[in-house]
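Ticket #4471: structure output looks truncated?

Reporter: J.K.
Steps to reproduce: submitted the chain below (307 residues) through the standard prediction queue, then opened the result file.
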Amino acid sequence: MTNLYPIKFHSIYKEMIWGSESWDISCRPQEMGIIANGPYTGQTFEDYIGLDREKILGTRLKDVARFPLLVKIIDARDALSIQVHPCDAYAQQSGSADSGKSEMWYILQPPTDGHLIIGLKPGITREGLEAAYKNETVEDCLNRLPVKSGDMINIPAGLVHAITPGVVLAEVQQNSDITYRLYDYNRQGPDGKARPLHVEQALDVADFEGKIPKTIVAGNQIKSPHFTVTKYELDKPMEETTDAEAFCIFTCVKGVAKFQSGKSGKSGESGEVLNAGDSVFLPAAMGRFVLSPCGGSAILLKSSPGI
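Returned output as attached by the reporter:
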């Protein structure tokens, strides 16, 4: 019988020219999560899922070809490229093994100037953006959005965007690594050469018709076709039960929290402490668990697949 308990993974750290990323929940061939706790310590995420796909992923996900989500912590010391991600259909048409890429951000630390690049200014057309690329005036076409710690921001496929210097954020996204760079401030990569751009693809997938919804979410939940992310503000223990239809992931974004699997968190049952920035995977059939703040209050994001 497969042992079902809160699973933590060794983080996969990536140093980038603009800062660093920590891939905390990842099931990809080149970025495969390795279990860091409990009886399955040292096993790959893929092999663990293979023990019992229905109980681990959920009854409505047991036949999916790939794990659907990816969870990261991003620390931007410099600006990321001006970029956009494709939808599923465009990714498939392009021959990619990845899906499209919609994502959301939770702001842990706001950028130095208080703004992120989110979307295009009103009236910017494909022709106008293409001309701006040729004239090196892309930055004049971009919308700057003021943000603060605690904001939840929706970044659907097609939305031109960029993370700006100083920001630290938690990111939940489709399990895809497709990024089309439109502009990169004429920077050089580690090899001393300009990093490649993907201007035609970016222009193909960018939204110029104002179809992108408002990006800062006023409530405590972002719901898309690809994922649902809900903010939990804990000041006392709460008991919940996993959904047998689909797994979930909890990411601590403030304070410290403890998971105790089993009804009422009885002594001897599996438990995990999450510090800010840590994530834990809960198998769909795990059942009841108790989530408690440690030393005051805590804020967590609960992510579940939307497919």
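Triage note (M.O.): checked the attachment and the full token line is present. The chain has two domains: 69-218, 227-305.
Status: closed, working as intended.
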